[in-house]
Design brief:
With 411 residues, the chain is α/β, with parallel strands linked by helices. The chain folds into 2 domains: 244 residues, 3-Layer(aba) Sandwich (Peroxisomal Thiolase, Chain A, domain 1); 148 residues, Thiolase/Chalcone synthase (Peroxisomal Thiolase, Chain A, domain 1, 3-Layer(aba) Sandwich). 33% of the residues lie in helices and 18% in strands. It is globular.
Length: 411
């Protein structure tokens, strides 16, 4: 009999707040977490705003010395993982630590630390480079630190597939539990790319919005006036657990991760392909044993780009039998920006909160829909709905597509 995989804890650090309740309150208020960049001087930059995590103090989650030696993306990962463990009430002990893993993703890792140390190299020479440069910047160190802090000694790894990274981590963690290789896994993603080189690099691609006069309305998925995505930062963690293990310890089950679909477009390094997206959605439905009509909501990847939003819309129409058959869809990136490698995890948390609370998150800043984007995007105001199953989509540069399906579990 195949093992069932459930979610028993969640944690988040986001532009809407420093924990899951704050994130969800921001969703309910349809509030924007986007504002002028304060982390560095943006003079001369085409884009001068982002979804920053504000008021975050890493020493609330780790000692001061360790905080200095690690990158901001690791700080976010540790904070989110601690909240997820606390809310799950999963105690990691000598008896179970070998069966608890950590799958934590990042698309880019410690780009801030790398950039700072390159400045040191050029100004002061190779002898002044920090010995903590490499451990601070490599993407797998979020998983490594979480394993060390928690004592989890099961499988531990980092998935890196651009903006699909943490969605892949969730899917692969679920499959690891289904195989019986772990009883529980701390899974998620973290990203901290609101840095000079991060913003300049995406500006060079002409990927970012330049609506500097109105940052809070700049992320506008599906709107005809959208002009690019908005960078976000933060971390998100979920505790995935074997259903029988969770029930045996009396855990509160938040949702069941039933479906995981992963495909590759094999077409282009940055463009999204309708066929690849549609196949990922179909696979998630098939593997989860979910009928299309059971899905009551889709949290779209929708980044607010002219190229991506219509393609995802078309794929949803294809799978669900046209506009009339498609469920309500919305984009959390309208509120928090694009967290890159952490996007799949934080948007899965929002999807699960929608499922639990019977509330559809809104796509804010949607005033004039693109004619090619003709679905119900829950414009501007959240609304109640009866939900039994939901989906979350994530796509990454390189043609990586992931779709996840979650179902309500009767307690």
């Amino acid at each position: 009999m195949e093992r069932r995989v459930v979610v028993t804890g969640m944690g988040a650090v986001s532009p809407l707040g420093l924990d899951v309740p704050s994130l969800w309150q921001g969703v309910l208020e349809a509030r924007s977490g986007i504002g002028p960049i304060t982390l560095f001087d943006t003079t001369g930059y085409d884009t001068q705003f982002a979804g920053e995590v504000r008021g975050f103090d890493p020493t609330q989650y780790m000692d001061r010395k360790e905080a200095r030696r690690t990158d901001r993306f690791v700080h976010f990962a540790i904070a989110a993982a601690q909240e997820a463990l606390r809310t799950s009430e999963l105690a990691i002990t000598d008896e179970n630590r070998d069966e608890i893993g950590v799958f934590f993703a990042s698309g880019i890792g410690g780009i801030g630390t790398l950039s700072e140390q390159l400045d040191v190299l050029r100004a002061r020479g190779p002898g002044r480079i920090s010995p903590f440069l490499i451990p601070a910047m490599i993407t797998n160190l979020a998983s490594g630190h979480i394993s060390i802090i928690s004592g989890a000694r099961g499988p531990s790894l980092c998935t890196t597939s651009a903006c699909a990274s943490s969605a892949h981590a969730l899917g692969e963690a679920a499959e690891t539990i289904r195989r019986g290789w772990a009883r529980a896994i701390i899974v998620g993603g973290a990203e901290a790319t609101v840095t000079p080189i991060g913003i300049a690099g995406f500006n060079a691609m002409r990927a970012l919005s330049t609506r500097n006069d109105s940052p809070e309305t700049a992320s506008r998925p599906f709107d005809v006036s959208r002009d690019g995505f908005v960078m976000g930062e933060g971390g998100a963690a979920l505790i995935l657990e074997d259903y029988d293990h969770a029930r045996a310890r009396g855990a509160r089950i938040l949702a069941e991760l039933v479906g995981y679909g992963a495909t590759s477009d094999a077409v282009h390094i940055t463009s999204v392909d309708e066929g690849g997206v549609a196949r990922a959605i179909r696979l998630a439905l098939k593997h989860g044993g979910v009928r299309p009509e059971e899905i009551g909501y889709i949290n779209a990847h929708a980044t607010s780009t002219h190229a991506g939003d219509p393609v995802e819309t078309a794929a949803i129409r294809t799978v669900f039998g046209g506009r009339e058959g498609a469920p309500p869809v919305s984009s959390s990136k309208s509120q928090i920006g694009h967290l890159l490698g952490a996007a799949g995890a934080i948007e899965s948390i929002i999807s699960i909160m929608a499922l639990q609370n019977g509330m559809l998150p809104a796509t804010i800043n949607l005033s004039d829909p693109d004619p090619e984007c003709d679905l119900d995007y829950v414009p501007n105001t959240p609304r109640p709905a009866q939900l039994d199953a939901v989906m979350s989509n994530s796509f990454g540069f390189g043609g990586h597509n992931v779709s996840l399906a979650f179902r309500r579990v009767a307690q």
